[in-house]
Sequence to fold (53 residues):
Amino acid sequence: NLNIPRYVDTFEEEEEIDIEEVLKQIAQDNAEIEALEKEINAQLKLLGVDGLL
Fold:
């Protein structure tokens, strides 16, 4: 009975996550979302539709 995982270490270290980089990316994404919502509302206003966002 050759149970190879029993004899071989298959551990792979997980990649570290840079929390500051993640928070920075979230802030950038939120700013982009806000700008896009303003643009969408401006286009809706041109069409005579009240802003949905």
Q: What stands out?
A: Helices lie at 4-7, 19-46. The mean pLDDT is 89.
